[in-house]
Every structure is written in C-alpha cells, then in structure tokens.
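Pasting as-is:
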Amino acid sequence: MKNLIEKISEIPAISLFSTFSLSVLLVVLVLFPAASQHNEDAYSSKEIEEILVYFEAEGIDLLEKSKKYNFSESVIYFESVSYTKIRESQHLEKEDFEKRILDNVFSNIRSKASRLIRPIIHLSEKYQVDPYWIMAMVWTESHFNHEAKSHVGAAGLMQVMPKTRRYLKRKLHKKGIELESEKSWSEIQEIANGFNKKEEKQIRKILSNLELGIYYIKNLQNRFKDSHYATVAYNMGPTWVSRSISSGEEVASESNKYLAKIKRYYGILTGTAQSSLFLVSQHNYSPYQY
C-alpha cells in the first residue's frame, strides 16, 4: 500500500492540480490504465480497489470538491505578512477565508468585491500568487469595477492592455494551459460566485481578465525576483523597470505613487495598515489616475 500511495503522489495531474476535486484522482486511476494497456506502470484492478479501500478507511471522499484553498510554501508573496496571514487561514473553508479578507474592504465597495473575491482567490491559487497582493492590485486598478476602461485602452479589473492580453493568451495556449474562461459553464459555476447563467458572458470576460493579469504579474515577479519591482513593472512596463535598474535609478521608491497605492490597500486588506492610512477618503479617489 505504501508503494501505491507513493505512486499516486508522483502522478503529474495530482501534484499540478492539487486544488481540484479528488475525483480527478479516480478518473486518472480508472481511465489511465484502460488507455494504456501495454504500459507497465498502469494500475491493475486490484491496485485500484486497494487504493479506494485505503481512502475510504481514511475518510476521504473522492467525489467531494475541495472546500479549502491550497497555497503551498512556494507561493509568490508581495510581503512577508501575507505568508503569516495565509498560513493562519489554511484551515479555514473557502467562505471563511474570503470573509476574513472582505471584512477589511471599505464598506462602500464591499458588495462589488464580494462577487469577485472567489474568482480572484481561485485564480491566485491556480498560479500560486499572493491573493492579498492581487486583491490590492484589483482595488487599485479598477476599484472592483469589471467594466473599467482607461483613456489608453487598458480594460477590466486588472486593466490589461489589448496587446498584452493577446500576447499572454498566446503564451498560455502555447504552454497548454486552459484558461478558466474557456471551460464549460458547469466547470466555472463554482467560482462564478453569484453570477447566474444569464451573466455567463460577463463572468467569462471577468475570469479572462483576472487570469491574464495574474499570470502577467507572476511572469514579472519571475523576471525581476522582487514583488515591488514586479508591481511597478505592471504599471510602467518591464522595459522601463529594466532600464531604470541598468541606469542605477530607484525603481520602487516611496515616491512611486502606484506602488504606494498598492501598499496602502495591501495593508488595509491584511489588517496591518497604519491608522493614518484610513484617513484617505473612500470617495475622492479615482483608480484610473496615477
């Protein structure tokens, strides 16, 4: 049995999509051998039966969907406080995890944020990026208005430029990664979070914008190895950041207004903001003016 469990842990689909329903495991175990009759690594009927008995004994429901978010140790964090917050929340069910963050959002935009928080955290989990960071970016970029559009053409919750959107989409498809917005309605219903079938086109657009924005910030983090640099690059462009670094200019200084806004909302969301930060008006701030 130990060898079987070790064998399961090595299945790429399980390690890569650890937050999916455990029913994925059942599909892999049952269908993979049938499609690979000549593969010596395929599971026999007896092995599958033993595995199912093992999970039943452990009280694991293979058909039960994951009720908790799963952020690993390799999550890309904006600042260290996120690590502590996420580790403290790992035992919480999704609704409670979401509520813990939403409770810190200003009351005048909380209703908007509440419809979007599940897609935001779900996609943050998919790419293992700090959800507090992404929430702060959405708050800064669009104030949770999925129809937001800037004078230069950036659109949606993450204010993604058309050219960047096309580039990122091609890159994801080339890697064989399916966007959540491209899945069937039954598959995205769970993360639609209050959006009904009549709003399907709307939620698909929201999911696409969020996913591309999150994937982009992760790419920027991988490139610059610094969350503050990545944040500035998201706003100013990676070329600008690279040139500034090469010329010895300060990239992520306190005077950078965009980074300051991200930090402000990040502090509010994590509950670590200085009391002075709350003096900022909830009503006179335009998210489209940097």
